[in-house]
Every structure is written in structure tokens, then in C-alpha cells.
Design goal:
Elements lengths: L2 H15 L2 H4 L2 E9 L4 E8 L7 H15 L5 E6 L9 H8 L12
Parallel strand pairs: 2-3
Antiparallel strand pairs: 1-2
Length: 108
């Protein structure tokens, strides 16, 4: 399987199974795909950067992508940088550490 195929399938999965990212003004980018190891890095940004449930969305993506897509062994999700980046990064970084997010399983 080619890295482009895995990248395309990852993007399709996120578009189809986590549509609220785009519906709520956020965006995602597939930053890196290692075809040999199956490691994928995804960045989310736009409105996601300041969203209170962004940490939950990030954890859900990290857990579900390897379960749902053959060839994906691990996923790292981070906040995108640049001009489309965080609205409230300090707040969401604090929220990632909150116990409430540890076992959250959103419906996507």
C-alpha cells in the first residue's frame, strides 16, 4: 500500500466520520504518513484550536483511526500552527490535562 493511499484513506475517514471538524469551522491536515510503520500525524486547527471539546476529538481520532483503518498503527494529533491556529490555546492545553477527558468517547 502506498503512503498516498494511506493518506487518502485517512483524509476520507476523517471527512466522513468526524464531519463536525469542518461543520464547526475547523480543519484538519494530514501532516505525515509513514507507510512502513503505519504512523500518521494529523493537525487540527481553525475553530478546533479554541474549542472546548478539541482535546476529546483529538483523543478519539488517536484511538479510532488505528482501529478503523488497516495499515494505521499509531496516530498523533496536534494543533495546527500558523495563521489558522489557536484562538484560545492556553485554555485547551489546560483542558487536555483534566480527568474528565481521559475516558470520554464521543459518538464518532
Amino acid at each position: 500500500m502506498s503512503a498516498n493511499g494511506l493518506e487518502r484513506r485517512t483524509a476520507n475517514y476523517l471527512s466522513n466520520n468526524v464531519p463536525q471538524i469542518q461543520q464547526h469551522g475547523g480543519h484538519f491536515e494530514i501532516e505525515d504518513v509513514d507507510d512502513e510503520t503505519g504512523a500518521v500525524t494529523v493537525a487540527i486547527g481553525g475553530a478546533c484550536s479554541g474549542c472546548g471539546i478539541a482535546p476529546m476529538t483529538m483523543k478519539a481520532i488517536e484511538h479510532r483511526l488505528p482501529e478503523e483503518l488497516d495499515g494505521v498503527s499509531s496516530v498523533t494529533v496536534r494543533r495546527a500552527g500558523g495563521p489558522r491556529a489557536a484562538v484560545m490555546p492556553n485554555k485547551t492545553e489546560e483542558m487536555e490535562e483534566m480527568a474528565e477527558y481521559e475516558d470520554y468517547s464521543p459518538p464518532f
